[in-house]
Design brief:
This is TTF1 factor. The protein is about 65% helix and about 0% strand.
Length: about 350
């Protein structure tokens, strides 16, 4: 099937198909289109968003049946094959012979990719491993000396996520200060961000700056650029005394204060309203994972703030109100906040 035909046929089942890349369309035409048509015959619509408890049980059943069929002894081997280099060829052969894609998605009217990601989340034994031990920290330093910043390789060696090992190493390698930010540190951060912004403006629109010397002009950028990702490891190096995540949090706090003209969004009555709005909007998204949430859309619901502010508010909500949140899925956390925390906050308001 050619690409245009595949896209047209998929549009019946996926309204946002125009936003999907060509390579993904090709994969979906092979893995999903026939499934979608079969579900249509059964009167079942293709679903997105939060997985139901019934769907989770179906995924568990599909995985267990595939393990029984192939003789593989763990879901981790099946779903995280790269962690088992010695068995990799055998596992790939078994997946191909026994039609892994079809089996894992049986009975679930969703794109195969989403089912696969959900299964990986459900069966990953490395989820929520907690704090790094002293031995793990030393291990991480050794692996980074051997493999540089190849975080994928290091994450496999340490059975931690890519982001986790990268962030932890950034923390370890810096002479970290955990106290209040001094005026000197804050000024270094502001200067570092300004340097990055100037370079960005120069690169994206050099003609607008050609008539003036950089050192003699104010920096004019549009608001949307303030919300874009910045090279935090570079900024960390310029600041010197803080690791990149601290720099990012501090900058977002400065940005929030400036954009809201000092309004106390997180305190008193305003703070309660912000929490209530955030919980309601997150619940309405029906997202199964944080990656499915449109944080920019939520940002506009809360106020004129950076998206990182909204993400940090959600983090504080789950840490403060959700017991054993590390052992809960994203949707379970949202359900708990909506069913238990929201009524308390509304009563308090």
């Amino acid at each position: 099937m050619d690409l245009d035909t595949a896209r047209q046929e998929l549009e019946e089942f996926i309204p946002h198909v125009k936003n999907i890349s060509d390579s993904s369309i090709k994969k979906m035409a092979g893995r999903d289109l026939m499934r979608f048509k079969e579900f249509k015959k059964q009167g079942m619509a293709v679903k997105f968003g939060r997985f139901t408890q019934k769907e989770n049980k179906q995924i568990q059943k599909n995985v267990e049946e595939f393990l029984a069929l192939t003789g593989l002894d763990s879901a981790e081997k099946l779903l995280f094959t790269s962690r088992y280099p010695e068995d990799k060829d055998t596992i790939h052969r078994l997946k191909t012979e026994h039609h892994f894609c079809e089996k894992i998605s049986e009975g679930i009217p969703r794109p195969w990719r989403l089912i696969y990601y959900r299964a990986r989340k459900m069966f990953d034994p490395n989820n929520y491993k907690g704090r790094y031990t002293t031995e793990e920290k030393e291990q991480l330093k050794k692996y980074q000396a051997l493999h540089g910043n190849d975080w994928k390789k290091i994450s496999e060696l340490m059975s931690r996520s890519n982001l986790s090992v990268a962030m932890k190493f950034s923390e370890l390698k810096s002479a970290i200060n955990y106290g209040h930010w001094t005026k000197e540190e804050t000024q270094k951060l502001m200067s570092a961000v300004e340097d990055v912004m100037r370079r960005k403006v120069r690169t994206e629109n050099p003609s607008s700056l050609s008539s003036l010397d950089q050192s003699d002009r104010d920096l004019w950028i549009d608001r949307e650029q303030l919300y874009q990702p910045l090279p935090w490891t570079e900024i960390e190096t310029k600041v010197g005394s803080r690791y990149w995540r601290q720099c990012k949090q501090k900058w977002n706090s400065i940005l929030t204060r400036k954009l809201t003209r000092g309004q106390q969004l997180c305190k008193g009555t305003n703070g309660l309203r912000t929490k209530i709005t955030l919980i309601k909007r997150l619940y309405e998204t029906k997202a199964e994972d944080a990656s499915e949430v449109n944080w920019d859309e939520l940002r506009s619901a809360v106020g004129d703030v950076p998206r990182a502010y909204v993400q940090s508010k959600f983090y504080r909500l789950k840490v403060s109100f959700v017991p054993c949140w590390k052992r809960k899925t994203f949707s379970e956390i949202i359900d708990y906040l909506y069913e238990n925390t929201l009524p308390e906050l509304e009563e308090k308001l």
